[in-house]
């Protein structure tokens, strides 16, 4: 995908750029909300027309004569998008007509060395569309194409013009990639970590909480492997979240966890582990995703030879939902230990996909039962484990066939899970045990005509 031609979508705020991106990509990934400045970073979506595949890049609303927070950073992101683009679509608002900001962008675009196309958006009526678009001839950028991103009117004509200007690319086979979501509370350094991993300023970094609103995908290649890094909006408590942009951004973050292979849970070394960090850890475990705890801002902590071990114990105790996840102590600001993170991601992804032979699983079960017999209920009836087998991976899931699941309390279930981890590893990934009731005569496995030896 990284070799596909890139098309940058640019324009002033609130002209419908994200709606057009959703239309071209055939998805609702880009956040659309009736408020200027919703999109800040540049985000990538795959699109196709006829027989051509390409990437569309959504960018923040471009304003030149304003130096308030974010706007200079947004301009920097738009310029970066144009630098890597093969073509650009300049989106204007046909309902409000030609604006001075449109003329400023047009003047800025003329010296650019890539083809660009003028899309007059919000022309919902096909009969009025031509008259709405006519005003934009005076920009001197060629023929204005009336479109409706919401209804799709005119987008086919726009795409016909676009793909004729794109460089030809041989169809490439889809490369396997590891999807890595970067999640955490606001202002813990997620975007700084992304930039440190990527080695370029792909996401806006700012000390103001809530800078990142979209989930931003970034492809990174390293040692022949491809990683899709997904930066997400900072996740706050529900009572602190207003409906609107932040609400949508948080939902994107939860979706990012769901579609990832490995989650980097970023926590602030200065603030320590908070209740919200715990809830995020619970969400990761609930979704069954591999996890690495990234303790950021470690450079700001006064420490001695014991500090890291004491902090690690605290992290494990507080984030008990993911106590199986390794902790990495880094500084995204200085880059210290950041280069080790993708090595840990490789290991976590491997563990997440791991499969264990049935014979090995039953050896672990026999050893576990030998050391600690299953409990008995009040009537003196003891639980029996017939056999176990792995039924799926991502995360590794093991079905245990027993005489009665109710006879195995939570303590014993945790004990069995602990034995699997101690004997087989499974670092960085949750494992799920499915306790299935099965009568002896119903057990059809050749190795399971008896209960596991006690």
Give an overview in words.
The chain has 454 residues and is an alpha/beta fold. The protein has 12 helices and 15 strands. It has helices at 17-25, 71-84, 100-109, 126-134, 155-165, 190-198, 245-258, 275-287, 307-318, 341-352, 358-371, 410-424, and strands at residues 6-10, 43-49, 52-58, 87-93, 116-121, 144-146, 177-184, 216-222, 225-231, 262-268, 290-296, 327-329, 385-392, 397-402, 432-437. The chain has a 6-stranded mixed beta sheet, with helices on both faces. Strand 11, helix 9 and strand 12 (327-329) form a beta-alpha-beta unit. Helix 11 packs across helix 12. It starts with 5 loop residues before the first strand and ends in a 17-residue tail after the last strand. Mean pLDDT is 80; it is low at 28-41, 204-215, 241-249 and 442-450.
Calculate the terminal CA-CA distance, rounded to whole Å: 54 Å
Give the low-pLDDT segments. Answer: 28-41, 204-215, 241-249, 442-450
- The SSE order reads EHEEHEHEHEHEHEEHEHEHEHHEEHE
Spatial strand sequence of the major β-sheet: 2-3-1-4-5-6
Structural class by sheet pairing and helices: alpha/beta
Give the total of beta strands.
15
- What count of helical segments does DSSP give? 12
Largest sheet: 6 strands, mixed
């Amino acid at each position: 995908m990284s070799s596909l031609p890139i098309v940058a979508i640019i324009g002033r705020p609130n002209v419908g750029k994200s709606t057009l991106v959703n239309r071209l990509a055939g998805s609702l990934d880009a956040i659309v909300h009736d408020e200027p400045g919703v999109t800040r970073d540049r985000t990538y979506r795959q699109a196709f027309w006829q027989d051509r595949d390409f990437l569309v890049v959504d960018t923040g609303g471009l304003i030149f004569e304003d130096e308030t927070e974010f706007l200079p950073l947004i301009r920097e992101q738009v310029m970066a998008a144009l630098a890597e683009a093969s073509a650009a679509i300049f989106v204007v608002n046909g309902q409000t007509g030609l604006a001075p900001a449109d003329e400023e962008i047009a003047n800025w675009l003329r010296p650019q060395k890539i083809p660009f196309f003028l899309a007059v958006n919000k022309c919902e009526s096909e009969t009025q569309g031509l008259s709405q678009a006519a005003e934009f001839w005076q920009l001197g950028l060629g023929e204005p194409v009336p479109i409706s991103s919401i209804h799709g009117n005119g987008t086919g004509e726009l795409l016909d013009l676009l793909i004729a200007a794109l460089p030809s690319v041989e169809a490439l086979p889809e490369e396997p990639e590891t999807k890595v979501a970067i999640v955490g509370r606001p202002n813990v350094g997620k975007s700084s970590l992304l930039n440190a991993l990527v080695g370029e300023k792909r996401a806006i970094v700012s000390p103001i909480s809530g800078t990142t609103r979209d989930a931003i995908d970034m492809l990174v290649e390293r040692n022949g492997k491809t990683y899709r890094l997904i930066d997400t909006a900072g996740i706050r408590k529900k009572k602190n979240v207003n409906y609107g942009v932040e609400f949508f951004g948080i939902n994107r973050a939860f979706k990012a966890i769901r579609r990832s292979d490995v989650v980097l849970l970023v926590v602030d070394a200065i603030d320590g582990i908070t209740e919200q960090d715990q809830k995020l850890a619970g969400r990761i475990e609930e979704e069954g995703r591999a996890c690495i705890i990234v303790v950021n801002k470690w450079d700001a902590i006064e420490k001695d030879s014991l500090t890291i071990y004491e902090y690690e114990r605290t992290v494990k105790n507080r984030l008990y939902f993911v106590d199986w996840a390794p902790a990495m102590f880094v500084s995204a600001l200085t880059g210290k230990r950041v280069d080790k993170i993708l090595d840990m991601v490789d290991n976590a992804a491997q563990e997440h996909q791991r499969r264990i032979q049935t014979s090995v699983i039953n050896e672990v079960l026999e050893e576990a039962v030998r050391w600690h017999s299953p409990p008995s209920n009040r009537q003196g009836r003891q639980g029996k484990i017939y056999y176990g087998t792995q039924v799926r991976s991502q995360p590794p899931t093991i079905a245990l066939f027993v005489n009665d699941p109710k006879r195995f309390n939570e303590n014993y279930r945790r004990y069995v899970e602990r034995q699997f981890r101690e004997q087989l590893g499974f670092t960085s990934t949750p494992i799920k045990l499915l306790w299935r009731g099965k009568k002896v005569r119903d057990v059809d496995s050749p190795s399971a005509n008896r209960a596991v030896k006690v």
